[in-house]
Amino acid sequence: MKKYAFYLLVFTFIGDICTAQNKDEHEITTMLSAQVVQWNKGNVDGYMRGYWESDSLLFIGSSGPRYGYQATLKRYKEAYPDPAHMGELTSVIKSMQRLSAEYYFILGTWALKRTAGDVSGS
User: Fold this and answer.
1) Beta bridge partners of 89
2) In terms of CATH architecture, what is 2-86?
3) pTM for this model (two decimals)
């Protein structure tokens, strides 16, 4: 009987981990979808709600690394000053890997269809 109780405990624990991971992945995809919605409304501030609001934020873009939330926000507003430059954003998650209980590694692609010329990246 003790052996079965152990297996039940292990399966329950594994089930709890999988449920938590699925919840985390759902929250991540929901947040990324919300960013796309905000971008497509022309709301850079709303888009940035998905970013870590910290001076320790590291953003790597076409002009190299940028440190800090405020510096990243400023760069977005300079690079995308109007709807013609913002265009319509689409993004696709290619992979999502759980690194620990707190961190995920996510790879994806993005594309902007815009009158100022289409751009994309990963």
Assistant:
1) 112
2) Roll (3.10)
3) 0.79
